[in-house]
Write a structure and sequence with these properties.
Layout lengths: L4 E5 L4 H4 L4 H8 E2 L8 E6 L5 E5 L6 E2 L15 E7 L4 E5 L2 E5 L4 E4 L6 E5 L8 E7 L7 E3 L5 E5 L8 E7 L10 E7 L5 E8 L3 E8 L7 E7 L2 E7 L3 E5 L5 E5 L4 E8 L8 E3 L6
Parallel strand pairs: 1-3
Antiparallel strand pairs: 2-20, 3-4, 4-11, 5-10, 6-9, 6-11, 7-8, 7-10, 9-12, 13-14, 14-15, 15-22, 16-21, 16-23, 17-20, 17-22, 18-19, 18-21
Length: about 280
């Protein structure tokens, strides 16, 4: 059994971030260690104490192990977990119950589950499990969510380069959670902008995980305060942590998909403060 890869990302003040150069922005907000074969990767953020991670079982199953920093007897002792598969077919085994996950399907695992392992159906096309985990106050039932079961929002237009479908896989209208919300957005060919107009929601943080990008393609992720914007270039299967005070939007060199995960005190998906492009600096 391999030792999990674990990093710790502390919270930052917007006044400090104004002075960050490119390397500092990437150090604090970019997660570029995800989707490593046969390894559990866990990035602990101090924004709502969300963990952003991955598990890619190739040669053997990957076990969701606890780490010393959690001071927990098992990983989900005080946490809930969201899983979305972006790879080949796989299975998540939770306390002896199998949950098959196809590409872009999700699984919610409630607080208290003791044994969680990740499996691929085929090592040549392994499952790639993207993970978000947040503190929980009670147990809610495990739930397998397919693309057909979630809410779908058809947004934007080709004329504004943001024609996209938003799949709300893990919001309160679909599945009960303590605070975790997850879903994915798929941009249509010819569209490159996501989340425009940009917005922020001071009552919760967010993490963006970009995927389905070609090897030579990238997304320019915009963050920062509306009057003090910054940007980070992000490759496929990398993530950006977005503080509550930051906008989050992106523009790619091609169309792409991304998973959004949110945590905080408000489960109202539409609770956001929007900023039209004309108001940004």
């Amino acid at each position: 059994m391999s030792t999990p890869i674990f990093t710790n990302r502390y919270a930052t003040h917007p006044d400090d971030v104004r002075h960050y150069d490119t390397d500092e922005l990437r150090q604090h907000f970019l997660l570029d260690n995800l989707m490593q074969p046969d390894l559990l990767v866990l990035n602990y953020t101090h924004y709502e104490r969300m963990l952003v991670g991955s598990a890619v079982p190739v040669k053997a199953p990957v076990v969701l192990e606890t780490v010393d920093a959690l001071k927990a007897a098992f990983f989900l002792e005080r946490r809930e977990l969201g899983v979305i598969n972006i790879g080949g077919k796989g299975v998540v085994l939770v306390d002896g119950v199998s949950y098959p996950l196809d590409n872009k399907e999700a699984l919610y695992v409630g607080m208290g589950a003791r044994e969680v392992t990740f499996h691929s159906d085929n090592a040549s096309t392994p499952a790639k499990f993207y993970l978000n985990s947040t503190p929980a106050h009670r147990n809610y039932p495990n739930a397998h969510i397919t693309m057909a079961q979630c809410n779908v929002l058809h947004m934007g237009a080709l004329e504004t380069s943001n024609h996209r479908d938003i799949y709300q896989l893990m919001i309160r209208d679909v599945v009960q959670t303590c605070q975790l919300q997850m879903g994915l957005t798929v941009l249509k060919p010819g569209s490159v902008w996501n989340t425009m107009p940009a917005h922020q929601h001071d009552r919760r943080m967010e993490a963006y995980f970009y995927f389905d990008l070609g090897a030579d393609q990238q997304v320019c992720h915009f963050m920062g305060e509306p009057q003090q914007t910054r940007h980070i270039w992000v490759g496929s299967e990398q993530a950006v942590v977005s503080p509550p005070w930051s906008i989050h939007s992106g523009c790619g060199t091609s169309n792409y998909a991304f998973i959004w995960g949110m945590a905080g005190e408000n489960l109202d998906y539409h609770d956001m403060d929007k900023f039209p492009a004309s108001s940004l600096r």
